[in-house]
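User: I'm curious whether this sequence folds into something compact or stays loose and floppy. Could you predict its structure so I can see for myself?
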Amino acid sequence: MKRILLNIRIFLVQTDRDKEMLTQIGVDPTVIEVAGNLKAEIELASLSLEERATRRDKLNIPLNANLIVAGSVRKGEEEPLLDAFSQAKKKNPDLRFILAPRHPDRADEVEEICQKYPFEVEKKTKLVSGSRWDVLILDTLGELAQFYALSDVAFVGGSLIPWGGHNLLEPAFHAKPVFFGPHMDNFAHLAEIFVQAGAARIVRTQKDLINMFCMQSAQDFHEMGRKAKSTLLSLQGATMKTLQAIETLMNEP
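Assistant: Here's the prediction. I'll summarize afterward.
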């Protein structure tokens, strides 16, 4: 193993912890550089306030409605989310909920689950002008990021169950308050950074989920969204560091 490691000219790692672990197995710390996470270089299409309002109107979302978008939801997460939405909706009838299953081919299954509740349910592909809905199932591919842009609150799925979570950077790009469950193992470092920055919150109980839907402190949620965007921006730079390292190696004799 040591002979293999000695043949590597440079290690580009995401975190100080990664550097520490390589050092512990015998890598010279002078050939290890913390470059950051390339995923933080995310660049999405932004929406103006006018574009956001127009798109929400096309989706039949009332002007003053609060919209929660749960993205990349896995099997087993729908019921806790819908239970919490049901409780929150008793306090705020204008709440709207967009549920985006990780795999759109589960849309029929998700619809059956939703129909156990006293909600008006629609699929995005079946939505017609003027139709009213409480829960909209996003049954398409490639649109989730834009739906995060339309939201007031974003929940990242795959995290209420021990799956490992999904990407929290898309809602952060759109300056949305980010919520996720306790199982964010696949994005543990990023999740920790966002939580510590006050840009994201972990929902551990049903009460936490209900509070997320209720949005009792809109100003706090707005501030969370602002911090989410600024935290994302602070993490960028990995691409440039990586290119500079490659260029240095290419120019060496």
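Summary: The chain has two domains: 2-36+237-251, 49-234. The two ends are 26 Å apart (CA to CA).
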